[in-house]
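User: Some background: our group keeps a shared notebook of sequences we're curious about, and every so often someone picks one and asks for a predicted structure to add to the entry. Today it's my turn. The entry only has the sequence so far, pasted here. Could you supply the structure so I can complete it?
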Amino acid sequence: MIKKVIKTDAEWKKILTPEQYAVLRKKGTETPGSCSLLSNKKKGVYECAGCRNKLFKSSGKFESGTGWPSFTEPYSDEALEYKDDNSLLMRRTEVLCAKCGGHLGHVFPDGPPPSGKRYCINGVALKFKESK
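Assistant: Of course. Here's the predicted structure to add to the notebook entry:
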């Protein structure tokens, strides 16, 4: 069981950049293609920029052509939470960090095998920790 991180809005604003805050806490979306992690091919783990929860392994990252980092599966079953999102006149599944509740992006059923899922994640919501 993941221990939840709870902070006030003011505390989040102190530790996150304005762009991270807009995405993680206010459910914003970064501009497609703007994230430096989009082309990252190094081995390691993608963590939540807000709380350092391990979210995705580099082995599950793939190029989806969407302009956002995409993954086939989460780091673990406990890493993420899901919520129905019917905003913008679309039906989607929102992906949240299970530890801090930060908005990460959405998951779609059009990814490659073996999962068939495409976790389309805002790169600004991630921190990369390289493996040696």
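Suggested note for the entry: The radius of gyration is 14 Å. The mean pLDDT is 95.
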